[in-house]
Design a protein that fits this description.
By secondary structure, this protein is mainly alpha-helical. The protein has 3 helices and no strands.
């Protein structure tokens, strides 16, 4: 089937592994198997998203706020978490990518002030 991430080829000396995917979904065709595998792969992206929201954005600290404040905090945290995940994915696939392709000039200035 191929390689690691994003269509990369596995090294020639790589050892194949087998995985067993348990599901409650009835599977009777290869197409249904692939559908379940795609769901499983997406599940890990969702797990990463939850980790970023809980650890990186500390969303659980927003509890006991009024609805307006909570709504604004979640909106801001969602955008920031999306950017964090984008940077992580880009760092894995294109680690030498220039920062100005991801950040605008104002964001670059803020980064300079923080470092």
């Amino acid at each position: 089937m191929g390689g690691a991430r994003g269509g990369e080829k596995s090294p020639a000396d790589a050892t194949a592994i087998q995985r067993l995917l348990f599901t409650t979904v009835q599977v009777a065709s290869a197409q249904q198997v692939l559908k379940c595998v795609r769901w499983s792969v997406r599940r890990w992206r969702i797990e990463e998203w939850q980790w970023v929201m809980k650890s990186g954005r500390k969303i659980l600290e927003h509890q006991n706020r009024d609805a307006t404040v909570l709504q604004r905090a979640i909106a801001l945290d969602t955008v920031i978490a999306w950017r964090i995940m984008l940077l992580v994915l880009l760092g894995r696939t294109a680690p030498g990518l220039p920062a100005d392709l991801v950040f605008d000039a104002g964001e670059g200035e803020v980064r300079q002030l923080l470092t």
